[in-house]
Design brief:
By secondary structure, the chain is of the alpha/beta class. It folds into two domains: 108 residues, CBS-domain (Roll); 223 residues, Alpha-Beta Complex (Spore Coat Polysaccharide Biosynthesis Protein SpsA, Chain A). Helix content is 24%, strand content 28%. A seven-stranded mixed sheet has the order 11-10-7-12-17-14-18, with helices on both faces. It is globular and about 70 Å long.
Length: 348
């Protein structure tokens, strides 16, 4: 139980890491005497981040101070099961008569329970695999970027596995640079999934080839770059997109940038106000993973170079709804850079 207990003075960033490290989907916020102060889920953190709270702020204004609880020796399995089902939650804290945390209850504690997981078995995935991968030269002078190896498998198989694990079995692969090599590789596979290539006769940017899917996809679908690995709950991401009625959702990583110098802050008159020693700044960085509704495909011009950033800007101009789904920095790996590639080799 220790790994889900946190204090109210930890930062948003620390809480995100705690949630990534625990198998549960909820943290219990306690004081020094184990008294329950509230619960904190990844949804609570996302709402805080999107409301403008900084990653360096503590979680005191983010957690739920009035959670559903079970009192020790005053409930049975059926009571717990009804609460989990009715409230559609994943965890209920168990407290004693003094509100001190003694345990918690989840779906896995129920003998006959089925885990409350939404399987995305009919959601298509588009992998943008046509780029040259110049940042990974000289590998990509020989191989297309999706086939750069990570241990015994190429990057693209690691990406596909993330989706097949949650039931996504239909893939579209947009190809251009060294596309024949990529096709030959897939010809040798015996996959559990189906796939279809989108051939770009010329480079069309990071979204141009999506135009060819206009009549093939009729529900919200994933689009991912071919050089990223995202460790997140894809079911919750999909639910976030659907429930908020977004037309486009982009996944963004919480990045902290430290300037390794003292920065000068000036007054309005140009005089020195103060020196900020090695200041830290928080950013939400676009990871290259998206959810798109089929209607946005109508925006994409035919056979024109067109980036996903162009699509987002044009969608905004048309009044469509664009969402941002924050994830922890450690949950995103950009394998398109040598430094990150080496980290992945060591970590996977």
């Amino acid at each position: 139980m220790k790994n889900i207990l946190v204090k109210a003075n930890i930062t948003i960033r620390e809480a995100m890491k705690h949630l990534d490290q625990t198998a549960e989907k909820c943290l219990l916020v306690i004081d020094d005497n184990l008294f329950l102060l509230g619960t904190l889920t990844d949804g609570d953190l996302r709402r805080s981040i999107l409301s403008g709270i900084k990653f360096s702020n503590d979680i005191s204004s983010s957690f739920n101070t009035n959670p559903t609880i079970l009192v020790e020796n005053n409930f049975n399995n059926e009571d717990a099961k009804k609460l989990l089902q009715t409230l559609k939650i994943d965890l209920i804290p168990i407290v004693d008569d003094n509100n001190r945390v003694v345990d918690y209850y989840t779906w896995s504690d129920l003998d006959d329970a089925k885990i409350n997981v939404q399987v995305l078995d009919e959601v298509p995935v588009v992998i943008m695999a046509g780029g040259k991968g110049s940042r990974l030269e000289p590998f990509t002078n020989v191989l297309p970027k999706p086939l750069v190896p990570i241990h015994e498998k190429p990057i693209i198989e690691h990406i596909i596995e993330k989706f097949t694990e949650i039931g996504c079995l239909k893939f579209y692969l947009s190809i251009n640079y060294k596309g024949k090599i990529l096709k030959a590789y897939f010809d040798e596979l015996d996959p559990i999934f189906t796939y279809e290539f989108i051939d770009e006769s010329k480079p069309l940017g990071t979204a141009g080839s999506l135009h060819f899917l206009k009549d093939k996809i009729n529900k919200p679908f994933f689009v991912t770059n071919c050089d990223i690995i995202i460790k997140t709950n894809y079911e919750k991401l999909y639910k976030f997109h659907i429930e908020a009625k977004y037309d486009i959702t982009l996944v963004a990583s919480a990045k902290e940038y430290v300037i390794p110098y003292g920065t000068c802050e000036l007054t309005k008159n140009g005089n020195l106000h103060r020196i900020n020693e090695k200041p830290k700044y928080d950013f939400l960085v676009n990871t290259g993973l998206y959810l798109l509704n089929p209607n946005v495909l109508e925006i994409i011009p035919k056979n024109k170079f067109y980036h996903i950033t162009n699509l987002i800007e044009d969608a905004k101009d048309l009044g469509l709804k664009i969402g941002v789904y924050p994830i922890n920095d450690d949950a995103w790996t950009d394998i398109g850079q040598w430094a990150e590639y080496k980290k992945v080799i060591d970590s996977l």
